[in-house]
Amino acid sequence: MSGPDLxxxxxxxxxxxxxxxxxxxxLAVLIFVVLTGIFFLFVHRQNKEIGDINNYLSRLEAGxxxxxxxxxxxxxxxxxxxxxxxxxxxxxxxxxxxxQDKIHLADSLADISHQLKTPLTSxxxxxxxxxxxxxxxxxxxxxxxxxxxxxxxxxxxxxLLKLSRLETGTVTLKKEKFHVQALIDxxxxxxxxxxxxxxxxxxxxxxxxxxxxxxxxxxxxALINILKNHIEHTPEQGIIRIEYEDNPxxxxxxxxxxxxxxxxxxxxxxxxxxxxxxxxxxxxxxxxLAMAYEIVKQQGGDITVKSESGEGTEFTLTFYKQHx
Length: 324
Description:
This is histidine kinase. Its main location: membrane. It is an enzyme of class 2 (transferase). One of its GO terms (cellular component) is plasma membrane. The chain crosses the membrane at residues 20-43. This protein has 324 residues and is an alpha+beta fold. The chain has a domain at 176-320: Heat Shock Protein 90. Helix content is 60%, strand content 14%. The protein is built from seven helices and seven strands, in the order αααβααββαββαββ. α2 (76-130) runs antiparallel to α3 (136-167) and α6 packs antiparallel against α7.
């Protein structure tokens, strides 16, 4: 009985070994197939993403700049896509800014040409009249007119240069403490002649200890231009008020007059360069308030205006202790 049992043991071992070998080979083949499939899927995906990037760049080159290639998945190519999108967005913004700068430059040149055309025309006319050899009295009058036009051109070009420097950020504004009263005194003193000519009364109210941080020279330029507007629109013997106050949140300067006021439809545009409202004088070129606005804004302040026709105009300059 034991003999036959010993004869079949090697066959069983061989069969078991063959089964194990077949299983191992099958498993190895399966793993190889799976890995090969994964590899090809990975390669296909990489090729697709590379194709997407290539297509994205081609369409950008063709002028399409509104495409979105951002990818929220993981991987180096996804990171590359996101970085490409960031770069494209940045370049798009820079291109748009350059376009706006170009438009602004063209508009500025057109405005400057228009503003210089009037005094230049006047000078040409006066020159032609002087060529006729008028009397000494008439000649003296023409020369005074020429001086006035040349002075206007000088003021215009100087103001435009200042405004352009402010708008392009080439001006370095100082940050120094100064008394608001000293600022007001400087502005009022520079306008003493037109104030005396129109017999305006200027009333100033405020705590002389109040201080402000900024560039007093440029701030005086802003206040002078605002006061010029009051002088221009206030009749003789009118009143111009300048008040200032200080609290833990802001420092405020208010200027007001009892003049003819500004037309309501003009109010939204009075700080625009070269804007001349309905009540503007013939000498006005519409640049003073634009400069005042830019100066105040660049020193962290706000400037607002309210006016009623026939009742006067009020400007408010607010400088916050902490820029909001």
